[in-house]
Amino acid sequence: MARGLALGTVSHAQSTATALLEGEEQGAMAGLSMILAGFFTAGFAPLVVRLLGLL
C-alpha cells in the first residue's frame, strides 16, 4: 500500500499503471493519491500565490 501511495503522489498515470501491475490494492492507492495530490495542488496553489503576493 505504501508503495502505491508513493507512486501515485509523485507521478502520473504511467507509474499508477505500474502500481496496478504490482497489485490491485497498490493500483487503487496510487490512483487515489494521484487524484488527491491534484485536488490539493489546485486548491492550495492559488491560496499560496495570494498569500505570497506573487500576483
- The secondary structure category is mainly alpha
Helix percentage range? over 70%
Shape: rod-shaped
- Outline the biggest β-sheet: none
Radius of gyration: 14 Å
Number of strands: 0
Q: What are the low-pLDDT stretches, counting only 5+ consecutive residues below 50?
A: none
Average residue-wise pLDDT: 84
User: Gap between N and C termini, in Å?
Assistant: 39 Å
In N-to-C order, the SSE pattern is HHH
Number of helices: 3
Tally the structural domains.
Answer: 1
* Share of β-strand residues: under 5%
Can you describe what's shown?
- By secondary structure, the chain is an all-alpha fold.
- The protein has one domain.
- Helix content is 87%, strand content 0%.
- It is built from three helices and no strands.
- Helix 1 (2-10) runs antiparallel to helix 2.
- The longest helix is centred in the C-terminal third of the chain and has 29 residues, at 24-52.
- The protein is rod-shaped and about 45 Å long.
- The mean pLDDT is 84.
